[in-house]
Specification:
The protein is α+β, with helices and mostly antiparallel strands. It contains 17 helices and 10 strands. About 2% of the residues have low confidence.
Length: 361
């Protein structure tokens, strides 16, 4: 017979670091979604509005739903380094630290350095679902999703006790930190629910102060249209000129608000091979990434979450970042970008032309 404890134990055996249960109901936090979208905070992510009804009520996704099984996977590794911006902020306090910084060091968000989490986490969820079906027998109704499904995963993760939604809008676990992939199984099983996580951000505002674009407009509220993750991943075509210059060190995604979070000072680390950084993404230099051939980039993008931005989006962001380099290095980076076939993409060509004028510096 399936129970809360048996499901949690099985989830851990399949590679999940956290597992909890929440009731499949409309939680108070869900009411904020409609207002957030109405304020334009979602930008071009129209799929959020299109699936809003389902996101507000899990029973519209699965009419018989009674419980949400929420899982978490640590993706922070021993080799993961803080974002280039956070490293510079620390190094600025000591002359020795400043000397150690690579002038054109840039950062790929930690979650994107290894395998595509959609594939890995979904695969483990399917294994958990199969075990549940085999154990329960006929009558089980359930579906799983990772990020892309119409389930507000952070809301249910908080309700299931995995962690609280912090002021930077990430789920923070007091023992593990916030470097977590989340996933859910919606089911018709009536399972014992866990105690919701309690907010432990206190008076801390480090994430708000560190955000380079002011995207965290107030505690617990993110304007996605100003977030570097949105600008470097979700925006197709050219980034609006006032925000281009913010793309400096973070060329794919952004970890700054998590890097500065005190709860991540002793964040848990994973030895899972799936999350280990691929060679060019661990501690890249901007010029090296610009020199990489289109073919080399396509090999890196295969099986990577970076496919979301695609080659043209990555090349565009590299060009924006190159605008901040000293003249000689900037010329070297842009010459490298122009040498690839991908330079013919309109947004890449426009970004290189803009960067060549030194507009971002």
């Amino acid at each position: 017979m399936l129970s809360r404890d048996s499901i949690v134990d099985r989830a851990r055996s399949l590679g999940f670091d956290l597992c909890g249960i929440a009731k499949a109901e409309r939680h108070p936090r869900l009411a904020r979604l409609a207002d957030w979208i109405a304020q334009g905070r979602a930008g071009t992510m129209t799929y959020l509005a299109e699936s809003m009804d389902e996101r507000l009520d899990p029973k519209l996704v699965l009419p018989t739903a009674r419980s949400v099984i929420s899982v978490g996977v640590i993706y922070n590794t021993a080799d993961d380094r803080p974002s280039a911006s956070a490293t510079r902020a620390t190094a600025d306090k000591s002359s020795e630290g400043a000397k150690a910084i690579v002038p054109d060091a840039v950062t790929i968000a930690r979650y994107a350095r290894g395998a595509d989490y959609h594939d890995v986490v979904q695969g483990r969820l399917r294994a958990l679902l199969q075990w549940m079906a085999d154990t329960h027998g006929p009558g089980l109704e359930a579906l799983s999703c990772v990020d892309a499904g119409p389930i507000q995963e952070r809301v249910f993760a908080e309700a299931a006790g995995l962690g609280w939604i912090g002021k930077n809008t990430c789920v923070i676990n007091p023992q593990l930190g916030s470097w977590l992939f989340l996933g859910e199984i919606l089911t018709n099983l009536e399972l014992e629910a866990d105690v919701p996580a309690l907010d432990q951000c206190g008076t801390c505002t480090r994430c708000l102060e560190a955000c380079p674009t002011g995207a965290i407009v107030q505690p617990y509220e993110l304007d996605a249209t100003r977030c570097l993750s949105y600008l470097t991943i979700e925006v197709k075509g050219e980034v609006e000129e006032p925000l281009r210059s913010a793309i400096r060190h973070e060329v794919y995604g952004c970890d700054i608000c998590q890097d500065v979070c005190p709860w991540n000072r002793r964040a848990a680390e994973s030895a899972d091979p799936a999350w280990q950084a691929r060679d060019p993404l661990a501690s890249p230099s901007l010029i090296e990434l610009c020199r990489m051939t289109d073919q080399a980039w396509r090999r890196v993008l295969k099986g990577s979450a970076m496919r979301r931005a695609g080659l043209r989006g990555i090349r565009r962001s590299l060009a924006y970042a190159a605008s901040h380099l000293p003249p000689v290095s900037r010329s070297e980076a842009l010459t490298a970008l122009r040498s690839h076939e991908s330079a013919a993409f309109s947004e890449v060509d426009a970004a290189v032309t803009w960067a060549d004028r030194g507009e971002g510096s």
